[in-house]
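Input sequence (504 aa), recorded before submission:
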Amino acid sequence: MATTTETPPARPVLRQRALVPVLVFLGMVVAVISSLGAPLVPTIATVDHVSLADAQWSLTVTMLVGAVATPVLGRLGDGPRRRAVTLGAAAVVVLGSVLAALPLGFGWLVVGRGLQGIGLGLTPLAIATARDSLPADRSRSAVALLSITTVAGVGLGYPITGLIAQSFGIHAGFWFGAIISALALLLAALVLPATHHRAARPLDALGAVLLGLALTGLLLVLSEGESWGWASGRLWAVAAGAVLLLACWIWHELRTEHPLVELRALTHRVVLTADVAGLVAGVGMYLLMSLVIRYVQTPTSTGYGLGESVVVAGLVLLPFSVVSVLSSKVVPVLIRRTSTALVLPLGCAVSLVSVLLFLFARGQLWELLVVMAVAGLGVGCTFAVMPGLIVSSVPAREVGSAVSFNQVLRYVGYSTGSALCGAVLQAHTAPGQLLPGDDGYRFAALISCAVWVAAGLVTIVLPRRGAVAAEQATVDEELMVEESIADIAPGEDEVPIVPVRAER
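Predicted structure, token format:
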């Protein structure tokens, strides 16, 4: 009797080979979706007949929701339900994209943009999926590639959505977001593996509610201060309530058995410094980006501005993203020739230079391109070394929580910078006018200078005893990024695993 040899099913192999491209596409979509509102803020204000400060919420609300959604999705996905959580969050992003695309009014647009913000928590889930699901020889470069998709996605998303919005209307840009997010959901449903073997972890629902309410209150104070009056009782009541809620959240997180965020990691001075620097740098980064986008689109009839289209506004930010990615080549050289402790304040100093350039040279388009390129180098250097500092300073079991919290603080900084831009420019808008005066941009730039000076001072307090270990960790991380770009090519999918650090 003849024997037959059964061939193994090809579907599992294909799913595994497609996992990295799908995860990268998912991360890219998240970056594009999160930044959709930035170039469209002036257009949204005109179409929906709202002030620029109110229109700025189309960007701020996305970052705000992302700051809360990131730790929540991280906890929900750190267990047997990761696939379901990832697909559920992606489905919510699709729903938010559709709501933002439909001509239902400004209120529904903000709701849709808020739902899109949940997608910001998908990147950590994608990284966790890559580390847990890929073979040992593929994990490291996959994780490194995912870590740079957010920056690359912003640079790609701004000009594309701007071109679509200019050619087919503002809602077409959000329909584009709905289409690509639906495609990402479909692909993820086809390839994401199950994680039934992982133990379930409870969600700190009270912590999530407290954090969300506190951040909403603080951002509401920033964005509505001018219209309510900075001395009004309502404003100070909201501010006091937000601070009280934040204090209650901290008290709760330190005492609950399964906290939303492991705040005890902040007792390490290096971790605390990296987190504070990430928060402050996030404010400075988004404050400048928001200023540049709005300045480029301001009509020349105001006596300043460039009067360019939303497409050009998106293209102006392209150098920021490109140079941010290329800074991965610069950081290892700087670390070898100096130290990690010097690279952090150096990155803040370069970012300060970019704001000074905007303050004194913004009359021509090429000047703003230079401004954003310099800003990309500064931000890239600053953010590139933070994960290495954190990883080298906490036990292995706390790395995930510590890095996630740093990302949460960045989102808080982004949303604060966005809201601060709207508040400052609204304060310098004359009654009955829609556009602020040029002095508003000067004042906002001076605030941004102060923010970067503060960030630089924070980075100088890094403890020297952790510099050597952190330096080596950052070199490893940046080399990982370089290898991922060099190794991943069509047809190649064999890359090394992320080394597991020994517990201190």
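Checked by second reader. The chain has three domains: 15-193, 207-255, 266-491.
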